[in-house]
Amino acid sequence: MLIDPKYELLGGSVERNGPHSVQTRFLHLLGFPLIPRESYFVTKEGSERKVLEIRRDGRSIAACYLRGLPLAGALWVGMLAGVQFFIPEPMVPFEDDPLYFDKPLLFWIAAGGAVALLVLALLAWIVTRHALSRDARARRAVYATWIGMPADPARLQDPWSLRDDLKRLIADSAEQRGKMRHGFDRWQEILDDEALRDPEVLGAGLTLTRLLLGHPQKDTDPGNLTRLHEQLWIRLCAVQKP
């Protein structure tokens, strides 16, 4: 993904997990975020940045506005204070303008405004960062095996090829164990088997159930998917426990 910094920015980082986060591309004017475009799962490896397009993320968009607007405002108001600091004459004269420490009133107003905007941006970052829990980070480490990045499968843009690959792997595992043949459409029945303890298949099922919660099919019930997802996670933790 190429971004022209003259009119585009990537911001609104949420769900940060080490070098990984969800961010949104914005059109901007002088650093002020204006129009949101696509959202991405972004990971940094050294100086390189890899991205995976996901569905537009409302929390990332809100975070970019709430942080970016006051931050850009602080930059420009701070620049005004800096210019006034080095110019002895008031840029905007006030009637009976008192000098505080040999600086005109405009400098102090602009400097105070810049500090206030920076504090507002910091508070917005604290409120909107949406930190991941330890459990969520552990699940995403499993998803990364199949997606290539520790992203949420429910928010992928077009996961149908991955969905079918996971179903096929689950069906093949059942056939290899002599449980059933042609189990592609009976993957839920295969995963519901309490005897299933293969970490690879459990991880595939965990990823598949999460994916289908975000991209439901006619033959899937959200309540049953949620139940199955949690059961698979419990079994996976049990077999991987040191």
First-residue to last-residue Cα separation: 40 Å
The structure class reads: alpha+beta
Mind telling me the C-alpha Rg? Answer: 26 Å
Number of helices in the DSSP assignment: 7
Query: Mean pLDDT across all residues, rounded?
Result: 91
Which residue ranges are poorly predicted, with pLDDT under 50 across at least 5 consecutive positions?
none
| Major sheet characteristics | 4 strands, antiparallel
Helix content: 40-55%
Strand content: 15-25%
- The H-and-E topology, N to C, reads as EEEEHHHHHHH
Question: Quick one: how many beta strands?
Answer: 4
Shape call: elongated
> Within the largest sheet, what's the order of strands?
1-2-3-4
What tags apply to this protein structure?
242 residues; four-stranded antiparallel β-sheet; 7 helices; alpha+beta
Nutshell version of this structure?
By secondary structure, the protein is an alpha+beta fold.
SSE map:
Layout: E1 8-17, E2 20-29, E3 32-45, E4 48-54, H1 58-86, H2 105-128, H3 134-147, H4 160-176, H5 187-191, H6 199-214, H7 222-240
Antiparallel strand pairs: 1-2, 2-3, 3-4
Helix pairs in contact: 1-2, 3-6, 4-6, 6-7
What does this structure look like?
The chain contains seven helices and four strands; from the N terminus they run ββββααααααα. The protein has helices spanning 58-86, 105-128, 134-147, 160-176, 187-191, 199-214, 222-240, and strands at residues 8-17, 20-29, 32-45, 48-54. The mean pLDDT is 91.
